[in-house]
Amino acid sequence: MTAQTASMGEMLATAVPMVRTLNLEFDEVTAERAVLRLPDQPDYHNHVGGPHAGAMFTLAESASGAIVLTAFGEQLSRAVPLAVRADIEYKKLAKGAVTATATLGRPVADVVAELDAGERPEFPVSIAITREDGAVTGEMTVVWTLRPNG
Q1: I need a surface site. Which of 35, 78, 88, 142 has the fewest CB within 10 A?
Q2: Could you tell me the fold of the domain covering 3-148?
Q3: 112 has which bridge partners?
Q4: Is the pTM of this model over 0.90?
């Protein structure tokens, strides 16, 4: 874990109590990719003994938020990042710890150029949720925007 990854994890755990509640672990955070892990915790299991769908949604959304804050952190003085919509598909039964890997769907420079032009850019973040054996248990897309301040 890098210092940047640790500080992003601490920042999100402070700003978003659900990150702290679920004990999400930050394995990697860059402007292109974020990898977060939800440990296996019986308090967050569903009726079949795996992570609850809401916990997996929160894991994936948090991974998308981590990449957005890292990629667009320099823009926070003039715009606030907001999730616009999310779509999740649960594909296989998840058991044990699960990992969410998020990737930014547009180049940062293109999004910033739209913001510079006075627009409110939207951009997707794709997330794969995998279990420990590498099988993809879910896929999610979160569309974000940078809403200009004022």
Answers
A1: 78
A2: Thiol Ester Dehydrase; Chain A (3.10.129)
A3: none
A4: yes
